[in-house]
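Final paragraph of the annual report: two paired records, presented back to back.
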Amino acid sequence: MTLPVHNTGLPGVQVIDLRVFHDERGYFLESFQAQRYEALLGLKSSFVQDNYSHSKRHVLRGLHFQSRHPQGKLLRVAQGEIYDVTVDLRTASPSFGQWQGLALSHAKPQQLWIPPGFAHGFVVLSDEASVEYKCTDYYHPEDEACLSWNDPDLAIDWPVNSPVLSAKDRQGLTLKALQEAGRL
């Protein structure tokens, strides 16, 4: 079974339409199958960690990344709706410092593949949202950094003006500050 894959505005970041089987009991979908994703995306690396977050309206998580242990992420919204943002932090990339945002919802079952080397975050648009994602590397708290969600040079067009942020996310650094600190 081939799944439709759509390129996005950033090289390597792709949206995968999932196949859903509906009947009178509800529905079923296959959220991952190794051979299929290797054929679709060239994903040869194995996932080592699954994460799940549940957040309330206007919570913004991100923009997180790891420098020495970059994580690729295969993300799916299990419940609710989010506005997802990825920022290219690959310094050798022609799209370095560029961002893209897109709405993802459980009502339209899709996955987002974010290759290693990107900052990632999202804001919740519905009352609540649950997000699941697989990672290609482990979480390394000593290596994690946060790109400022409102970096004026990036000018990300978030659909929420006053998001709910964690203390860590309020401390995010601009892209310039991260470069000056040698974090990229």
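The closing record of the year follows.
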Amino acid sequence: MKRITFYLDFISPYAWLAFERLPEALEGLSYSVEYRPVLLGALLQQSGNPGPVGIPPKRDWTYRHVSWLGHSLGIPLQMPARHPFNPLPLLRQALACSADGSVNRFVAGTLLRHVWVGGHDALDSARLDALAEALAPQLKPEMEPQGPAVKALLRSNTDAAAAHGVFGVPAFGVDDKLFWGLDSLPMLRAWLEGDAWFGSGWGASAQVPSGLGA
């Protein structure tokens, strides 16, 4: 059985779409998934990437694209009332349900639906209270969303993701490979199925010399 690490930040609509698509994309294969919340903004900053919302025309396209993808895939997705927003309260709420930095599918799904279903404000105080109540049975002893242990888990998750080459979410780590984005799910499946392309294509594809600065 292969073990997949699913790196996600609840601010990402593509993470929500990938979360919903994953079971179907990998249907029939033997695998387990470890969901790891990370701070996307920190990963983007480390790689000097402003992200799609940092480029106004790309922001508009991204919101249209994910709304279309939700429609075409039959996945409920309504843009929240404000986006982007500070995801730290949601990331910390999730990691208060963790002893080791990973969360179960119920916790990850609850947080993602909170943001991406209904078109509401993700940081509305009443909704955050309802979210905390829904996740209360999942809380780990001594783990408080604003406590130092939870904050340390988020830093550790994000630093470990960066060390493994994660530059955005969703990303999927398995064996020594990293797959990025919703559209990488077929490629992830091919790796799990033992596609022969990976024997040479994976390494060779990244060896093309850069034509910049020559």
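The chain has nine helices and four strands. This concludes the annual technical report; the extension proposal builds directly on these records.
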